[in-house]
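Hi F.,

I've been meaning to write this up properly since the lab meeting, where we talked about keeping a consistent format for the predictions we share between groups. The idea is simple: the sequence comes first, exactly as it goes in, then the structure tokens exactly as they come out, then a line or two of notes. No screenshots and no reformatting. I'm using this chain as the first example so we have something concrete to point to.
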Amino acid sequence: MKPIAIFRHARTEGPGYLATYLERAQIAWQLVPIDEGAAVPSSPDAFSGLVFMGGPMSVNDDLPWIPPVLQLIRDAVARDVPVLGHCLGGQLMSKALGGVVSRTVSKEIGWGEVRVAGSEPAQAWFGSSRPAFVTFHWHGETFSIPRAAMPVLSSPLCQNQGFALGPQLGLQCHIEMTDELVRSWCDAGRREIGRGGSPGVQSVAAIVSHLPERLGALHEVADTVYGRWIQGLKR
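Output, unedited:
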């Protein structure tokens, strides 16, 4: 099977638990470090699936790699190559498919509950026995649901936390977190956390509290989501 391409947009925002999951499943993957100037592939044909991770930039920024990434996503969707987006990645997917990315009323940083929609696609992605779960957030923007896609997740401070379109899944939240990722983001983002200004911004102490238990529960969710996503990989 062709490898999965994982696009990294910031050095500290790598694949995290997704890499662990893929290696455990013996699925090959290839990192595309956009943050190091890697070229955006002109076609999805060399890959069984595409994954887009997070990043501190906005999809509305004038960055040279954003237009070719948007076109790559459109090409992948047209060819039924599965695409998975985490936070910025989900926003890239939304914009590529005709959605709009804009600032949220309240920034979310830290742990918070998201509710799973009652629709068939949402149940298929997250499991019929999981009406809600606690996940990790770090965003100040949000996406609209693209036409033909279905909303699958929501939270009190951010209505659109996820959408599905066939084998494609765009997430606003972060299910890929590991202990290393959480702590490194907190270290790098202490000033942003300190500014607060939103009921959705938690303190560093609150974020790292009970971390093993929270990550263990989140990895169970990620196992379900990633397990569903790899079923659509191009063989």
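Notes:
The beta strands are 4-8, 29-33, 49-52, 83-86, 101-116, 132-143, 150-155, 158-165, 168-171, 200-201.
The longest helix spans residues 211-230.

If this format works for you, I'll send the rest the same way.

G.
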